[in-house]
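pls ignore typos typing on phone
zinc ion + seq
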Amino acid sequence: MASFIRKASLKLDKRLRLERTSSGHNVEAAKKGLEEGCLRLSEAISFEQFYDIISDTLRLILDNVSEVLVFCHDASIDKLVSTGSVNHPLPGYGICKQTKDLGLRKVFRILDAHDPLCQLLSLSNHFILPEGNKVLCSPIQDRHTKKTILFLVVICNELTHDSKENLDYLEKHIAATWYRLNQLQTPSVVASTSSELDYESKKILKLCGELYDRDGERLQQKLLHFLQEQLDCQHCILFFVGEDNSIFSHVTLPNRPKCELFFPISTNSFGTAIHKKCPVVLSDITAVEREQLEKCFGVELHNMLCMPVESRSDQSHVIALFCAFNKRRPAASAADSSNTNTPTNTITQNNNYSSSSSVPHTGTTSSVTSATGSAAVGSGASQTVAFADFDAMDEIKAHNTFRYTTTVLTSTIAYQKEKRLKTQTETMLNVAKNLFSQLEDMTELLKLVMQEARNLCNAERCSLFLVNENRQQLVAKVFDGGEATNEIRIPIDKGIAGQVATTGEILNIKDAYEHPLFFTGVDQKTGFRTRAILCFPIIDGDQVIGVAELCNKIAGNSFSTEDVEVAKAFSIYCAIAIAHSLLYRKVQQAQKKILLTNELMLYHMKNLSVDEVTALLSEERENVCEKWPGIDSFLFNARLTIPYCETVRCVLNMFHELGFISRWHLDMDTLVQFSLTVKQGYREGVSYHNWWHAFSVAHFFYLICKNSKHSVANQLSDLETFVTFIACLCHDIDHRGTNNSFEINSKSTLASLYSSQGSVMERHHFAQTVAILNSGSCNIFSSLPDNQFKGALDILQNNILATDLAHHFKIMGKLKEMAIHGYKVDDDKHHEMLLCLIMTSCDLSDQTKDWNNLIEVAESLYEEFFNQGDLEREMGAQPNEMMDRHRAHIPEQQISFLDNVAIPTFQLLSDFLPETQEALDEVHLNRRRWDVVKSEVGDRNIMVKGKLDIKHLDVDRLLREKESEAANNSSPDTHNAVDTHSGSESHNSTSNQNNNNTSQNCVANSKH
Ligand SMILES: [Zn+2]
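k done
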């Protein structure tokens, strides 16, 4: 019934038939089938054979084929027509038409009963696709006209990756064979004119039959071998025209290393041959080119036939240059040595046949012979080879050969290039995956980079340099897979690597010793012989971050253009990996720091004595006022009155006394843990900025709250008061006994974390406080409502940062303004500034205490200062006078500090909180006490072995005497001389008078 459907008699090799199993397609059998099919295609001389082979081969390479239809373009009616006994045109609608219009292969899972293809296949409306079968429609187009020349319909199983690849390859061969067969049917001008060429044509046809390899190199070798025989010459070579204005060739000769020849063509005679499509002779090419060719072949060159090879489809396009060298003289004429200089008759004729050249030959074809003469003597003394000139016949032979082989040659090379690119992409992705798995360790990453670079380009060695921008150097830490014992540094502009680093251009050096920048010293030292170098930059963005240098191609003279391409692609991944590794390292460091802080905190937490916690929790809260009478007075000296072991209990009592526990529903367990942890957060080895300092600062705030209850309540919120008390406790946590400028100058870790924002230590104190709050059992803010929690942290940060005196000086002007114009309770900025002032005052509150306390504080403070001064001196820096134990003049410095910092601060504080006047008075008194000390000790260094050597002085008696004397004189000049510091503009004489009265009282008090 379906008589027009060609039931191909499967001329299957029995062996192949056996290898195909019903359960699945045998990959090996398909591969063999494809090779067989291609071989048969190249031998086909009629279209009947051609269609049979297509059908057979499709059945071999595709899985479970039940039908094959081949439509071929019929030029007479310009239609695709089915091949076979009945010629049916390709259906004008349905899936065939759809695929043809699309121009791409398509697989259909369902075949509609109304599709004309369905009727074509079975002549019935009940055609059913066999189970698992699909309809494959594949148009084969003319590459240039995009016209469909063949159309395949196959009923088979779904295409696998392999069968797709095989089908691609087969279709290329089908197209090539179609062209060839069409040409065979057109009588050749040359073949018809010469019986000899008729014979040649048969030989070429035989050659075509042999060109079935999927490997372009093997195909090329067959072709060149054929031409070498036909032209009777020593060597043939095919240069392909590259995309970058160059020609290149890979030459593989027996017993010789594989060699890549590469010539730029913009200026030389190879270029002329390509552009003008005319042959060139040996004397036309440069000495360097000739030398390279001779080196590659290992013989001296005597003559050359070099002609362009045009594309079959586009004759304006030259795809390659064919060169033949050293034509042997036929045996008969070689014997006739007397006649060697006479060219043979054939080559003196002007050759009209040269379709390879649009420009007619300008001279005789003798121009294709070498200038060295038609015969020459070989280099070996034992054997004499005579050479003849290439003649017109040679040119015709070569031309005819290419006429029939270019299509298969170019399609195979294109296929190979595609395949190579695919493999290269896969390799690169793999390399990238490897590189990105090594980001944590820079050394390992660099080792891997070198290893991958070596493998990719098949190099013997690799060195890798990273660019050090600051020092303008190239640095190599890792060498050839191993670590260098000493890192090697070279100036950034020296040598080959230097040139690549500075220009960012790849250098592919065929012979290192001939390169002016190559340094032979290393070879001499190591005994390694450098031949070729491929040196490429690793570029991140537009910056060269490194240079990789590959040495010596394994099994080759030098690195190829492909290696250069691979290196370019590879360097991109390298750059990303290296840049990420550097970033990763930074992130890691930051994480380590965080970890360290948390560990430190945990350490403190673990060290909390359970007994201590339990004891503090179980004890009844005592009334602090009852236990330590006077604790609510500004004159109370906490440092000297409360024992160290009682300080935390005292803090808890202050929390209670100030109403924080009930107001904020503080959990006692949390509060105890928090207070103990904060205490532990202060370093014991630090003589001044330790827990005592934190405790006394917090106590002073307690005093403010107690004594200025109404002023505080009127001006600050409950939350502000609560957080400020906590800020006082925490404001110097983990102080190291050194100040901000020391941290910055010594480039400490803390400075690297915070110096860009300023207030290095204060930021650290805040960070430590947050770390304590973050450990669950210490979070006394956990009971705060969400909206107040964030506010609490902001106040905490603001208050702790305010204890940087630099900040205090910055806002001093605004504080004064606020004092003059009045505090606005609804202005957040005013709240913030008042809190800053309160924090500074609390921090300086030692100055409001009695003389004994002051001496003790001064001793511990100067011990801390001098320790820092000693450290600075060790580091080769000159400490400032205050920190220098040999130069510090304590009374003078204290007076200056009181005048410039403490007095203005407490003065302002009393403006906002008048009840603190008492504290200010005490500061004034201390100022006068230091004055007395100063006049008593003169320039003497009063710090002896960590103690102030002034305890023998009865400072208060001396002051009393001095002041009564002044009062007797009642000279305003003398009075002012004593009290200039307190003479701020806003101070009237009445308050001065008050000061004096209070100080008299205090002096009297301190006598006890
Ligand atoms: Zn402090």
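The CA atoms of residues 239 and 694 lie 85 Å apart. Residues 693, 697, 731-732, 803, 843 surround zinc ion (CB under 6 Å). more later
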